[in-house]
């Protein structure tokens, strides 16, 4: 499939519509839509874009869409990606905004989302599995993964953990440069 | 009236600029809006959070659309959505140009070397927390374990070995099983 404004819009419209249960699900969805089906990006790029996205201000899923769109078609691509992402939430919310009270108390809807929420755990597992191969490459990265996991479970602010990681990466760079 | 749109734009531009790390991080800003403007009440905000979690799209974006709609209708939604994504569009594209230029540099590589396991661990912890909430019912001693949730989880987990990697299939199957278990 050729990359054009409308093909990007179309793909991101789909991604936005599938994005249930929080932004983390975006990694497996992108692996499926953009890496497997369309081969627009490599799996490595998707993982790296996720890493970059979560360091930036704003919503991770939106930032990631901007990165992918921009990579494909510069500013035009980024705008197409945002429009596509915003479209289905926009339509859904406007339709249901006035029926809020009724919707929140329908047992049928409740039961659907009980199931979907559990599938989100499995989708997160798929995202982790995908990133695992790229990120856990030696003893240090395995150690660092465990350390951050424990700290994060102990509810240490993720922003702190990200900033510390960036700082440590910079220290590694400076050390290597000094040795070289 | 025009004033309201300027205020909506201003407030949401701030949300887009200062939220770091996902939709729920924008909640403090929304509470501030509920207290200081007559766009929506705290009660409506609570409903908005619940609905934004179960409708498609990133939660932060859903809440913005919702808040704008509550304030002034469809035009309000357009204003808040635009204001929310504008700072991201400006910052992210600039950072990305920088990143592309230096993505082969040693510095970017060593930062990503540390950042990749960090991302992986942060996502894992969200998965663990969800598992703890939904399957273990917030009790580490396993006394309140939700058996039907555990079975559904195991079934979906086993599917990952056999099935396609299309995430929508998992959500679809889980939704149907949810209806069979909880509704029928």
Number of H- or I-type helical stretches of chain A: 8
**Pair with the most extensive interface?**
A-B, 105 and 93 residues
Structural class of chain A: mainly alpha
**Mean pLDDT across all amino acids of chain B:** 87
Question: End-to-end span of chain A in angstroms?
Answer: 45 Å
State the end-to-end distance of chain B.
49 Å
* Oligomeric state of the chains present here: heterodimer
- The overall pLDDT of chain A, averaged over residues, is 89
Low-confidence stretches of chain A: none
Indicate the structural class of chain B.
mainly alpha
Number of strands of chain B: 0
Order of helices and strands of chain B: HHHHHHHH
Main pleated sheet of chain B: none
Major beta sheet of chain A, specifics? none
Radius of gyration of chain A: 19 Å
Strand percentage of chain A: under 5%
Q: Helicity level of chain A, as a percent range?
A: over 70%
How would you describe this structure to a colleague?
The complex is a heterodimer of chains A (180) and B (184). With 180 residues, chain A is mostly helical. Chain A folds into two domains: 5-135, no CATH class; 137-180. Chain A has helices at 5-18, 26-37, 43-53, 60-96, 100-104, 107-135, 139-153, 158-179. Chain B is mainly α and 184 residues long. Chain B folds into two domains: 2-101, no CATH class; 104-183, no CATH class. In chain B, 79% of the residues lie in helices and 0% in strands. Chain B contains eight helices and no strands. Chain B has helices at residues 2-18, 27-36, 42-54, 59-72, 74-102, 106-134, 147-162, 167-183. In chain B, helix 7 (147-162) packs antiparallel against helix 8. Chain B is globular and about 55 Å long. The model of chain B has no long low-confidence stretch (mean pLDDT 87). Chains A and B meet through helix 1, helix 2, helix 3, helix 4 and helix 5 of A and helix 1, helix 3, helix 4, helix 5 and helix 6 of B.
């Amino acid at each position: 499939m050729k990359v054009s404004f409308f093909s990007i819009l179309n793909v991101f419209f789909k991604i936005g519509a599938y994005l249930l249960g929080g932004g983390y699900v975006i990694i497996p969805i992108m692996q499926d839509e953009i890496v497997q089906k369309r081969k627009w990006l490599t799996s490595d790029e998707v993982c790296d874009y996720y890493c970059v996205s979560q360091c930036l201000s704003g919503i991770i899923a939106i930032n990631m869409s901007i990165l992918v769109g921009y990579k494909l078609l510069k500013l035009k691509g980024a705008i197409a990606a945002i429009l596509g992402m915003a479209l289905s939430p926009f339509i859904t919310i406007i339709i249901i905004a006035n029926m809020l009270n009724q919707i929140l108390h329908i047992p049928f809807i409740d039961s659907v989302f009980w199931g979907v929420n559990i599938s989100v755990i499995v989708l997160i597992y798929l995202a982790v599995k995908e990133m695992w191969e790229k990120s856990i490459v030696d003893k240090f990265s395995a150690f660092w993964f465990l350390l951050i996991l424990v700290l994060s479970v102990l509810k240490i602010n993720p922003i702190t953990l990200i900033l510390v990681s960036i700082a440590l990466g910079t220290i590694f760079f400076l050390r290597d440069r000094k040795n070289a | 009236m025009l004033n309201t749109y300027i205020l909506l734009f201003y407030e949401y531009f701030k949300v887009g600029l200062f939220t770091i790390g996902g939709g729920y991080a924008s909640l403090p800003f929304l509470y501030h809006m509920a207290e200081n403007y007559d766009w929506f009440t705290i009660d409506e905000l609570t409903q908005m959070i619940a609905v934004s979690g179960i409708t498609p799209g990133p939660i932060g974006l859903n809440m913005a659309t919702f808040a704008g709609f509550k304030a002034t209708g469809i035009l309000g939604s357009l204003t808040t959505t635009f204001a929310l994504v504008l700072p991201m569009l400006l910052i992210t594209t600039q950072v990305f140009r920088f990143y592309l230029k230096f993505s082969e540099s040693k510095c970017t590589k060593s930062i990503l070397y540390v950042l990749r396991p960090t991302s992986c661990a942060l996502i894992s912890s969200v998965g663990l927390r969800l598992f703890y909430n939904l399957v273990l019912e917030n009790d580490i001693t396993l006394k309140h374990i939700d058996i039907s949730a555990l079975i559904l989880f195991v079934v979906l987990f086993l599917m990952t070995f056999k099935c396609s990697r299309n995430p929508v299939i998992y959500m679809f199957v889980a939704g149907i099983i949810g209806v069979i278990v909880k509704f029928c």
